[in-house]
Every structure is written in C-alpha cells, then in structure tokens.
Specification:
The protein has helices spanning 9-18, 58-62. By secondary structure, the chain is mainly alpha-helical.
C-alpha cells in the first residue's frame, strides 16, 4: 500500500521554528566577576543623633 502524506505548511513552519531545543548555555558564561571596591557600600558615617531615623521601634510606632 502506498499512502501519500499530506503535510500542512503551517505545521512544517512550526516544526522548523520550535522543533528543537536551543543550545545549552554553559554555567561559565552566566557568571560575571568584577573586582570589589575597597569601601563599597559605605555611604555615610554613623551619627548617634540621627540613628533613630533608620531603625524601627515598636514602642515608638505605638506612641508609648
């Protein structure tokens, strides 16, 4: 028996586009290394007068 296959052009286009997985990305290419600066993250010095502005206190929040 000789069967002729009919192929939908849209199905062929989908298979061309999505028929295989993309290439594997190695972990080495997903990591970026850069030198840290000596005082990175240090913005200001500690000031005891204004320290309460940066810390939450439940007693102050409740007005006690």
């Amino acid at each position: 028996m000789n069967k002729e296959l009919t192929v939908d052009p849209a199905a062929t286009a989908r298979h061309e586009r999505f028929g295989k997985l993309p290439e594997r990305v190695p972990p080495e290419s997903m990591i970026e290394e850069k030198q840290a600066e000596p005082n990175a993250g240090v913005v200001a010095e500690y000031g005891p007068e204004g320290a309460w502005n940066f810390h939450s206190c439940l007693a102050l929040d409740l007005g006690l």
